[in-house]
Write a structure and sequence with these properties.
This protein is mainly α. The chain contains 15 helices and no strands. The termini are far apart.
């Protein structure tokens, strides 16, 4: 698990370095901010249409081989881009094609690497392993974004892509040496033991339908999707809302927003550390954390100064990070093992819809209500929706009736059963 965490830290740092440089590269080639957004959408779009197939492949194929091959392919794409950039042969069409290929490979790589990490610890430690993964992701994002400018300044744009390619190859080289921890169950054994006809390796329906059916019929996962979706649309996009708030009503500059972004990153890391201590995450906990974060968002929207905003931003990021860790733990541990790849595929498709639709919806809300109004309105919508969900659930859950008994009472009578 230590080797896997180190490998993922390097891979995340390389990925965020490449993503940062890629945005700058598109601006350099086209001079268009719209083209930059289009390149990001092209890379994310395959997840909307192919994640279900990718999750099915992860359930069917040997997990270590799948993860190693997908990492090697991602490395090959990064090296190809580096060569084209170094030779000054990269145009917008080539960049879009390479971004789309990366997105297609990621539909398999994402669930494969997530489930492989879970196999490296005992079953009872899976929530903690997911928390460690969140910590590694946040740390890699912080380091990779910071290194992007330094790398381009000293070594050129192609070096960022080459560094990312090397990070993928390092992960691929580590995977063959990973061994399940005592108490962990190998993925291959789980798939082999899957019941026939229920999406197992020998069942007739190994692809999309079983994952969709399980997800739709599982109230916990539907509720988790609802909580995460409404939070993604009306909150969380702090890179957009807080940027406008800081540079607008609070009269700050780029440096002030950089400080806010740093505090958000630190809060994400602290939240991941706290999330790693979760032992029994639940959808109720995710909902409570999301509602708390929404109320903090409301307070942030009403901040009279940058200093007050900074005080609120840290707990906002911590709550968001712990909530994400808890939700991921529920998502990866609730389904039967032989269905987890497909459930993650369903989740990835849903998350892509939020990712593509959330920023435009929030941008429209900001046009209508301003930065403060968008933060306050969005936070209230999230909190009220989650509160209504809790109230509806409590009304639908019948409270058990305890009948007092005396000596000689027949506690199993049909009449008493019906009354209870």
């Amino acid at each position: 698990m230590r080797w896997w965490s180190v490998a993922n830290f390097l891979s995340n740092a390389g990925t965020w370095m490449q993503l940062t440089v890629q945005n700058l590269l598109v601006l350099q080639i086209t001079g268009s901010a719209a083209a930059t957004g289009l390149s990001m959408s092209v890379q994310a779009a395959p997840a909307l249409f192919m994640s279900l197939l990718g999750g099915s492949a992860v359930d069917r194929w040997p997990l270590k081989m799948t993860a190693a091959v997908s990492q090697a392919l991602l490395g090959a794409v990064a090296f190809t881009t580096a060569v084209l950039v170094a030779m000054d042969r990269l145009d917008m069409t080539s960049l879009m094609v390479l971004a789309a290929v990366t997105g297609v490979i990621a539909t398999v790589d994402g669930p494969a690497c997530a489930l492989l990490g879970n196999d490296l610890v005992p079953v009872e430690d899976v929530p903690s392993a997911i928390g460690v993964g969140a910590l590694v992701h946040n740390a890699g994002r912080l380091v990779g974004t910071a290194l992007a400018g330094v790398t381009v300044g000293f070594l050129g744009t192609a070096s960022a892509y080459a560094a990312n390619g090397l990070s993928f190859l390092f992960v691929a080289s580590v995977i063959p040496f990973l061994r399940p921890a005592p108490g962990a169950v190998r993925h291959a054994a789980r798939v082999k033991a899957a019941p026939r006809g229920d999406g197992g390796a020998s069942g007739p329906d190994m692809t999309v339908r079983q994952g969709l059916k399980f997800f739709a019929r599982r109230p916990r996962l539907v509720a988790l999707a609802a909580v995460t979706g409404i939070s993604a649309v009306f909150g969380r996009n702090y890179g957009l809302t807080l940027a406008v708030l800081v540079t607008g009503p609070l009269a700050g500059g780029a440096g002030s927003f950089g400080t806010v972004s740093t505090v958000l990153a630190v809060g994400g890391i602290l939240g991941a550390v706290l999330g790693a201590r979760l032992r029994r995450p639940s959808v109720r906990l995710v909902g409570m954390l999301a509602a708390s974060g929404a109320l903090l968002q409301v307070a942030a929207g009403l901040s009279p100064s940058l200093a007050v905003l900074l005080v609120l931003v840290l707990p906002m990021a911590v709550v968001e990070s712990v909530s994400d860790t808890a939700g991921t733990a529920v998502l990866q541990t609730d389904p039967p093992a032989h269905l987890r790849g497909r459930v993650l595929g369903v989740w990835s498709s849903i998350g892509t819809i939020w990712g593509l639709g959330g920023p435009p919806a929030l941008g429209l809300l900001m046009e209508l209500a301003g930065a403060r109004g968008a933060l306050v309105t969005g936070g209230l919508i999230i909190a009220l929706a989650i509160g209504a969900g809790f109230a509806l659930r409590s009304r639908r859950t019948p409270a058990p009736v305890v009948l007092p008994t005396k000596d000689g009472d027949i506690t199993g009578r049909a009449a008493l059963d019906t009354a209870a």
